[in-house]
Specification:
The protein is of the alpha/beta class and 376 residues long. It has 15 helices and 8 strands. It binds flavin-adenine dinucleotide.
Length: 376
């Protein structure tokens, strides 16, 4: 596997698009530019000044469009290179019955398309997109109408997906909501994941307890003869979780060091490949070592590159060198492609910019690869 093959990595982009990508990476690798951009963006949003003209270049880099039709154009384009698309409706910050129903409707649209289009292998949603987050905390009573309504919405989605044979990924968010989500999703996995995984939960491996939870899940799947669908990620909210634990006076749920998280991630993948009869793996990472580790394990266990129980995934606009080179070798690869009205996906865009500016070396290496490809 050659992750430095920039010709393969960026074949889907025109020269003009590559130059635009380079411009984006030049900006987001400068933390002061990102801070200044965020400051002016907040002012513009508060004053209701249209933000589209000066955020469009970022939007184009990291999002698939404002609606599903635009995402499908992206999907057709990257699909030519064997890279699939997971449309991710990324509206954030609204949380009421209307927004929950809107999300259910949108997910059903994605599921309909995914049922027919080989370039769309999954649907995805954030668990707090369908309920007010506070109801997911352990301190809230289990018997309440909001949770019942939540389960009804989830059942509606999974029923629909099951009929169309489309697997659905459920993202993981804050630690304080995850116990409830785990409990609910496990019941749904037992119900829907008989022949293949329809319901995929997410394990954030930066959590100290997640290897134990993985072993618990695999044991149960073997005993009760169903499949576990798991998206493996390292976890996106480390600083927030550490601070919250400190403020709340409870033990930090996150591993002490990055090395432990890295070790556990690879270990979790190993456990899952060993139990591939009962576990379907969705490897959501930008970490090259972890990606290579999984490809080596697949070889060791004689699993074909395109075995549909194993998927690799990166975010749209990031780490194309991993996605497109894996796809060229015949592995199953899908990009998370966020979409939604530009103003409403702003929080997502700001997060991508901040994350890239704080990650330093990864974003710089991405910038250098784009430069290399332009020169080539
Ligand atoms: C397709 C896809 C889907 C995703 N879905 C989700 C999701 O549902 N929920 C979610 O939370 N995140 C999600 N993420 C983000 C993911 O959790 C990571 O934040 C991001 O991918 C960076 O991690 P990495 O595996 O790519 O590798 P790297 O860049 O090698 O690792 C960075 C990660 O390591 C961990 N880490 C860093 N420093 C330390 C430390 N000192 N101690 C302990 N751990 C540390 C953190 O988790 C950090 O994000 C998703 C990512 C992708 C690509």
């Amino acid at each position: 596997m050659n992750f430095k093959d920039t010709k393969t990595a960026y074949a889907y982009k025109s020269a003009k698009e590559l130059k635009s990508a380079l411009f984006v990476y030049k900006i987001i690798t400068k933390p002061f530019m990102v801070r200044a951009g965020k400051f002016f963006l907040n002012i513009a949003l508060a004053l209701h000044i249209p933000v589209k003209p000066f955020t469009n270049f970022m939007f184009k880099q990291f999002c698939g469009g404002e609606n599903l039709d635009e995402v499908l154009k992206v999907s057709d384009n990257i699909g030519k290179f064997n890279v699939k698309t997971i449309p991710d409706y990324s509206i954030e910050g609204v949380s009421n019955t209307e927004s929950f129903e809107k999300l259910v409707k949108e997910l059903k649209k994605v599921i309909d398309i995914a049922g027919k289009d080989k370039n769309i292998p999954f649907a995805v949603f954030k668990p707090t997109g369908l309920i007010k987050a506070e109801y997911l905390q352990n301190s809230f009573p289990l018997n309440n109408q909001a949770l019942d309504d939540y389960k009804t919405r989830l059942k509606d989605i999974f029923d629909y997906a099951s009929k169309k044979h489309v697997p659905v990924l459920v993202d993981a968010e804050d630690f304080m909501y995850q116990d409830r989500i785990d409990e609910i999703l496990l019941d749904f996995m037992k119900l829907y994941n008989r022949e293949k995984a329809i319901v995929f939960t997410t394990l954030q491996i930066y959590r100290k307890d997640r290897l134990d939870y993985l072993n618990f899940l695999t044991d149960m799947a073997k005993r009760e003869n169903f499949r576990i669908g798991i998206k493996f990620v390292r976890g996106a909210y480390m600083e927030k979780e550490r601070q919250r634990a400190k403020d709340g006076g409870y033990p930090d749920p996150i591993n002490e060091t990055k090395e432990v998280t890295d070790y556990n991630y690879n270990k979790a993948i190993g456990i899952s490949v060993e139990n591939i009869k009962h576990v379907e793996i969705f490897c959501g990472t930008h970490n090259e070592d972890s990606v290579l580790k999984l490809t080596e394990l697949m070889k060791k266990y004689d699993i074909r590159n395109d075995d549909n129980r194993i998927y690799f995934s990166q975010l749209y606009g990031m780490r194309d060198n991993i996605s497109f080179n894996l796809a060229a070798e015949g592995y199953n690869v899908a990009k998370y492609v966020p979409y939604g009205p530009i103003k409403e996906v702003m929080p997502y865009l700001v997060r991508r910019a901040e994350e890239n500016s704080s990650m330093g070396s990864q974003a710089k290496s991405e910038k250098n690869m784009i430069k290399m490809e332009i020169s080539r």
